[in-house]
Amino acid sequence: MSLFETEGPLVLDLSCPICLQLFSDPVSLPCGHVYCSACLEKYMDTDTAHHCCPECQVEYQGPQALVKNFKMCSIIESYKVTTTGKVRSVTDGDGGDCHQGVVSPNQRNDASQVTELTVRLEMAEDQLRREEEREVEVRAANALLRGKAAKLLERMTELTINYVTGMTELIEEELRPTEESLGSRVHQVFEIRVKLREAQLRAKSLLTEEDSGVFSEGLQEAQPRIMELMVQQPLEELDHDNASPESKVNPGRACDELERRSAELREGLGTAQRSLRNVLNPSEVTFDLDTAHPSLVLSEDLKTVTFSTKKQPYPALPTRFSNFLQVLSTQSFYGGEHRWEVDLDGSSPWIIGVCYSGALARSGLASALESSRGSWCLMWFDNLLRSFEQGHDVPLKRTPAVHRLEITLSFKTQRLSFYNISQCSGKTHVYTFKANLTEPVHLAYRMMSGQPKARITVCS
């Protein structure tokens, strides 16, 4: 019978989840779970380097990752002392009697309660210390994340403001000449109107003049001015020149500039958005168009790669693969825990893994992903899975088809693991590399045949 069935709730916290007895030589895993040293050694599979916690399945490096839990040892010892049920004799003064025997049930119960409180207090203090340390770590990480996110959001705001300002200035440049021209015409017509009104009033006053001498003299003075007004551009002609009241812009110039500025905005916002996604999700993966072979086509979100019989007009770059149908991720990774799922077409052979970008050539036989001394990858070809580690391959097992893979990369345990995800059999472990990574790595993919259905999609 286990201690769970005979003792109170305290013993649950002091018992090994494997043997269900009080901890004996307790050790802690990197994930924080505690087990008896002997129990964990029996649980570990000595035939493989793939070790994981019995409870949370977090991977660890093996026996060297186990740490003796001295705090739990102390708590166990304190608990054992209180459960013996006996007390030594008590001496009352120099000549007093000595009594030896079993304490009363009430005394035993009180002592047990005090000890249980003491043990629980020690456990609570230990838990509080760990939680406080965790709080400090989380707050520091959150502050760093907030800072990075704020800078990127500021950049996106700046790009938007620059776009709005630039387009506003462009529209003003297009509309201002028409407005200035119309303003000039209004002023011109106004001046003509004033002069005509003055001439009209002068003519009317002369017509009412009864003195012929005054009339003749006034007419001689007004006639040159009237003749001058009569030969000026008529109002009808001014109206005809500006018949349409609609605003006019140069559509060629305006639309070309709009497209140019919009393209710059999309590119800038896209870059900032992808950077923000990387901040919010350190495992974010997109494929790098500047590394893709010309026969590979990337989706708009840069997460899907497909084959094209027509080579794409990609610019010739030193980062682009030219011999093999390969592509690298835009992001590089050099710390933390990462997990990705990838969808594959299930019929076309492939190679996928991680590599040092600088160690992988871009042309010639040396550019093959599986041949690089700086790559760790899995190959599926002719229904056979193979692992390639720094150029050396190991046949694994025959597999008719692989439609979805899970890839986990842990810099803490130095492990790169692959799992096959099937609707029938669920998640099964395929292979784990013990990779001592000394520089940032990129996710890498090679399409081994140019088939129309060949593709890969990074899902997470």
Automatic annotation (TrEMBL):
InterPro entries: B30.2/SPRY, B30.2/SPRY_sf, Butyrophylin_SPRY, ConA-like_dom_sf, E3_ubiq-ligase_TRIM/RNF, PRY, SPRY_dom, Znf-RING_euk. Keywords: Coiled coil, Immunity, Innate immunity, Metal-binding, Zinc, Zinc-finger. One of its GO terms (biological process) is innate immune response. SMART domains: PRY, RING. Residues 16-57 form the RING-type domain. This is Tripartite motif containing 107. Gene3D superfamilies: 2.60.120.920, Zinc/RING finger domain, C3HC4 (zinc finger). One of its GO terms (cellular component) is cytoplasm.
